[in-house]
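Q: What would this chain look like folded?
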Amino acid sequence: MNQETPITTPNPYLSPPRQAGGYARRWRGLPRELGYIALSAVLVVVVLIAANIALRGWETSGGYIASLLSLAVVVFVSLWAARWFGTFEVTRLRWASDRPIRPVDWTPNTTWGRSDKRIVRAVSVVANPHYWLYLLYAVVVFPAVAGFTSFVTFAALAVPLGLVLLGVLILTAVVPWNIYSLGDALSGSTVGFLALAVGVVVLAAVVLLLPYVLHGFVVMHQAIAAAMLGGFRSDELEVELADREISRTAALSAEGTALRRLERDIHDGPQQRLVRLQMDLAAASRAVDTDPDKSRSLIEEARVQSQEALEELRALSRGFAPPLLLDRGLLAALESLVDRATIPTTLLDRVPAHVVLPVDIERNAYFIASELVTNIGKHAEASSADIVVRTRQAPDGMGLLLELVATDDGRGGAGLRDGHGLAGVQERLVGLGGFLDISSPAGGPTIVTVSIPLTASPTTPTMPTETVVSLD
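A: My prediction, written as structure tokens:
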């Protein structure tokens, strides 16, 4: 019994796996993390000044009604400012940390948030919980956390540096040692050397541990920001559920499309062979008494037709194109197609030799040509026809079009009718991004032009080659 190993997709918002070269990597990341902490200290001052200005403005607003209006304005402006500040903080953390924060869906979650009036949409932010979380983070959480990390970082560096400086000043007699009320218990040199030694040891320890300390501070900032500034897990689950529903719908649609394509392929391929087989058998039945040799010849042709139809059906059941198309390409398959036509048909190949047709384009072009040839034989009442295969520049100047032009001298009047062959051609072209042009006045001639976009265009222009296969 075979067991399959389940394939799991890692969550990008969890902690990344441990990487090699930890201590050296921490030192490489130290400038970014130190810059983040330093800028955080500056932002704390900016936030406190802005909050103080806002509170003073509200306090001096006047009476009760004016105070309420002023408070509403301050809160509304603060919500928008908090969003800008939080977005900037997420950007800073993305620069300083390798742990991504789940993005926030700012789409209005209320009916009035989707109003046509701009003012109504702007006021609707009071109903979005993300704005309030961003405001709480900007006014309370960030100043407290950033103030703590900034103070600890500054103190960790300032205290040992201060001790080193004090020791140097005492040893150089710039600062008298006895001002610290140590009396005569210790000499000045002893105090200086002691302060210098303690300062150097502590400073060395701080320097050695600083990369880990700063990294821990940045990780703490990131974890708090991810909880308050990141998108809700419920929103992500809703998106995943919607994606799964879209995938399920797409799978069902793809299954239906595959079935319709198989139906069209059978209609445009083997069914046409069976129509020819039926006609050959009918002719053989009429000639069996009067012309046995012709009857045997027709029966032999019918046998060949039945064998080819069987091969096509087997190929289609496996999802492939007809064997001749796969083995020898579009031109050989079209030559075989016009060879089986019920009326004399000429094939002209005007595709430049350097143009390589994609397999899927060849496959669809073959079945479209098969449908066109069959329609001419069944409905046109024509005495001759020709099929031209060519390429031309797309109308927008981007890329090439593969064109199939079917012309007959029949009675005309062809058009798109439900359930008829040209409607099937049109349906096939919709999936290819192509288009169909029909010119069929009463009395003929009928000209049907099929245009299929190609994915690539030639880089070097060359003269097209022309191959003519005339069948009487």
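The longest strand covers residues 385-393.
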